[in-house]
Design goal:
This protein is mainly α. The protein is built from 15 helices and six strands. It starts with 9 loop residues before the first strand and ends in a 10-residue tail after the last helix. Belongs to the 'phage' integrase family.
Length: about 375
């Protein structure tokens, strides 16, 4: 059996007649694909199979109908806007867009109305994040349709995202950081990965590409895959100690057990196992260390702009959450000191019986 670039869970084999067949296994059940890999129809069939839905292959279905959602998606994938996106962003967008395409690809773009979009979002209300992501991608496609003169208006206009209480990835606490460090001492691959994430405040997709060639004059140079931003980050003393203890001839600091570079997904799974071994909650993930780094900077009194110079955030909206939380904590502590200190006790005593003295002379 061979993968040959096929999606996860799908393999190719040669049957007894010498014909190459494509099959997938999901929850112990084997499925034989009818369409050819690399075609639009295979993508739709694979998504339907992966999500446990029935997919009916229609005659001529592989032919994209002019003016349809599917045709718009094809055109979007060939656009300059798509070409300028990072590989990571493309993968995220495509996963959402293809789900929309599976259900609505045959429908005319011009006939998509606001009520249709509301219904699509409402069906995913139980998973607010998925619903909001779908709305965002439909909005991207509709704005592209307007630019291409496929329609004059945006049917997503005025449709609000579903409110969610989730704050995204969990930000590691100092206790969780200490527990990981205790389990994985300096000299282990796990500690190396942890230190790169925490002391550079970068995403896992950037950390896995870091190597000795990026270190110069006490700084590590990063070109972010998601934003394209170029950063020069001073190396924290704790990170320097970890890097000095790491001896390797590989181009990247982090490699698999076989000495090969990590993929972003592979690294995420491996780091999850390291967190489990340290007895950390399921919410502790690689991205949470990026958030922890921003939190530490905010607690140290750094402004949103200063934090962004390290993290590389494209906007200050996300970064301001850390500074706001840090400011709130400092102000709250100052407020409690004001009402719990000696002066407050003196004032309360004066107000109660009029006998206490402040030591000030009356005017």
């Amino acid at each position: 059996m061979k993968r040959n670039g096929l999606p996860k869970g799908v393999t190719s084999f040669r049957d007894r007649h010498g014909k190459i067949r494509i099959r997938g296994r999901r929850k112990g059940v084997t499925y034989y694909f009818k369409s050819r890999p690399g075609t639009e129809e295979f993508t739709l069939e694979y998504l339907a199979w992966h999500e446990g839905r029935e997919h009916r292959l229609e005659i001529g279905a592989s032919r994209t109908k002019p003016g349809s959602v599917s045709a718009l998606v094809v055109k979007f994938y060939r656009s300059a806007e798509w070409a300028n996106l990072s590989d990571a962003t493309k993968a995220t967008y495509k996963g959402i867009i293809e789900r929309f395409r599976v259900e609505h690809g045959h429908k005319p773009v011009a006939r998509l109305e606001r009520r249709h979009v509301r219904d699509i979002v409402a069906k995913k209300a139980k998973t607010p994040a998925a619903a909001n992501n779908m709305l965002r991608m439909i909005r991207v496609l509709m704005r592209f349709a307007i630019e291409e003169e496929w329609r004059r208006d945006d049917p997503t206009l005025g449709i609000k995202s579903i409110r969610t209480r989730s704050g995204g990835f969990h930000t590691w606490t100092e206790d969780e950081i200490a527990r990981f460090e205790k389990r994985w001492p300096v000299g282990t691959r796990e500690r190396l990965a942890f230190s790169l994430l925490l002391h550079t405040a970068q995403r896992r997709g950037d950390v896995i590409h870091m190597g000795r060639q990026h270190v110069r004059d006490g700084k590590i140079r990063v070109v972010q895959h998601k934003t394209g931003a170029t950063l020069s980050i001073p190396i924290h003393p704790d990170l320097k100690a970890v890097l000095d203890a790491h001896k390797s001839d590989h181009m990247t600091f982090l490699t698999t057990a076989k000495g090969e570079p990590f993929t972003a997904a592979g690294f995420g799974n491996w780091f999850r196992e390291a967190c489990d071994a340290a007895g950390l909650p399921k919410g502790c993930a690689a991205h949470g260390l990026r958030k922890a780094a921003c939190r530490r900077l905010a607690e140290a009194g750094c402004s949103a702009n200063v934090i962004a110079s390290i993290s590389g955030h494209a906007t200050l909206k996300e970064v301001s959450r850390y500074t706001k939380a840090a400011d709130q904590e400092l102000l709250a502590e100052a407020a409690m000191r004001a009402i719990a200190g000696p002066e407050r006790e003196q004032k309360l005593a004066n107000r109660g019986n009029g006998l206490a003295k402040t030591g000030r002379k009356s005017l």
